[in-house]
Design goal:
The protein contains 1 helix and 7 strands, in the order H-E-E-E-E-E-E-E. By secondary structure, it is mainly beta. It is globular and about 30 Å long.
Length: 77
């Protein structure tokens, strides 16, 4: 259901220490990848992600819910 996946929001973006994820659906898995495809982070059932240990740059965050999956761009300062 594409409409329910559009309700996933990520803030702040760009982020320096943490990223909040808000969704009307239950979040089951969050994966964060750098642009080379290397996974930098894996979290299960989380709404707050600590990015303070990641190198600055652009990342792709894949969020899995019970209705599907969505990928968002994240900037880490």
């Amino acid at each position: 259901n594409i409409e329910s996946l559009e309700t996933v929001s990520i803030y702040p973006n760009p982020a320096t220490t943490t990223i909040n994820i808000s969704s009307s659906q239950q979040i089951s898995l969050i994966e964060l990848y750098d642009l080379t495809g290397k996974r930098g982070l894996l979290k299960r059932e989380a709404n707050l992600i600590d990015v303070s240990t990641l190198s600055p740059g652009l990342y792709l965050m894949t969020i899995q819910t019970n209705t599907g999956q969505v990928t968002k761009k994240i900037w880490v300062k």
